[in-house]
């Protein structure tokens, strides 16, 4: 049975769903705005991959700073190289990723991540498929007792033409052949953040070609 795909875009629906997840829209927006500030602090003289990397890192740091405190008490963890924050029960995890131009808006296509993903995301999507929103309560409770975790992505896209940053908190369920997430069980669209695009022109906005899940291979010397 395929999960029903849901999109939350009106204020009431967005806030209600975030409350169910133990989150607030303002908190998520604060984290993404820290990432935007890091991107804006870069110049065309930085290495090409650095501005996008700095934005990703500072967004995740902001998410951790804001959630790993009272009253939220989430925990920062690392899953096979993928940085995550987990809620107190450990059944909800959030990580950060760049998204394409479909991020944060309704259109003919769902957003894709701007970088390919690794094994941690593949495993997370399998667990997400068991925990879709319209599951009957008793079946859902059984799976939650099995410690099935929902993994969500805070997707961020900077539109340097429109001068706005669009974001969403979404739960992935499918991946393209090039290992970019291209399907989502739930999408929670957040408010956009405006910025002066003229000030950011010329700053490279390309993700690192590596996945967010960094792997280090150790080789023995002969």
List the helices and strands and how they pair.
Elements: E1 6-8, H1 11-20, H2 25-40, H3 50-67, E2 75-79, E3 82-86, E4 92-98, H4 119-130, H5 137-145, E5 150-159, E6 164-175, E7 181-189, E8 193-194, H6 197-200
Parallel strand pairs: 1-7, 4-5
Antiparallel strand pairs: 2-3, 3-4, 5-6, 6-7, 6-8
Helix pairs in contact: 2-3
Give an overview in words:
It is a single chain. By secondary structure, this protein is α+β, with helices and mostly antiparallel strands. The chain has one domain (6-195). It is 31% helix and 24% strand. The protein is built from six helices and eight strands, in the order βαααβββααββββα. It has helices at 11-20, 25-40, 50-67, 119-130, 137-145, 197-200; strands spanning 6-8, 75-79, 82-86, 92-98, 150-159, 164-175, 181-189, 193-194. Strands 1, 2, 3, 4, 5, 6, 7 and 8 form an eight-stranded mixed beta sheet that branches. Helix 2 (25-40) runs antiparallel to helix 3 (50-67). The protein is globular and about 45 Å long. The relative contact order is 0.21. The mean pLDDT is 86.
């Amino acid at each position: 049975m395929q999960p029903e795909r849901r999109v939350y875009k009106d204020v009431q629906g967005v806030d209600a769903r975030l409350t169910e997840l133990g989150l607030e829209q303002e908190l998520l927006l604060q984290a993404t705005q820290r990432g935007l500030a890091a991107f804006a602090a870069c110049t065309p003289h930085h290495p090409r991959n650095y501005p996008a990397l700095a934005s990703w890192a500072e967004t995740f740091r902001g998410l951790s700073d804001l959630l790993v405190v009272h009253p939220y008490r989430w925990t920062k963890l690392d899953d096979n190289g993928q940085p995550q924050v987990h809620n107190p029960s450990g059944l909800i995890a959030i990580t950060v990723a760049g998204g394409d131009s479909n991020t944060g808006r309704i259109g003919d296509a769902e957003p894709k991540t701007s970088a390919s993903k690794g094994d941690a995301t593949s495993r997370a999507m399998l667990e997400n498929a068991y925990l879709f929103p319209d599951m009957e309560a008793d079946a859902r409770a059984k799976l939650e007792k099995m410690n099935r975790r929902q993994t969500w992505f805070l997707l961020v896209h900077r539109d340097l033409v429109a001068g706005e940053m669009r974001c969403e908190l979404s739960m992935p369920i499918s991946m393209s052949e090039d290992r970019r997430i291209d399907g989502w069980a739930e999408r929670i669209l957040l408010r956009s953040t405006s910025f002066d695009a003229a000030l950011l022109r010329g700053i490279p906005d390309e993700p690192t070609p590596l996945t967010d899940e960094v792997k280090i291979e150790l080789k023995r010397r002969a």
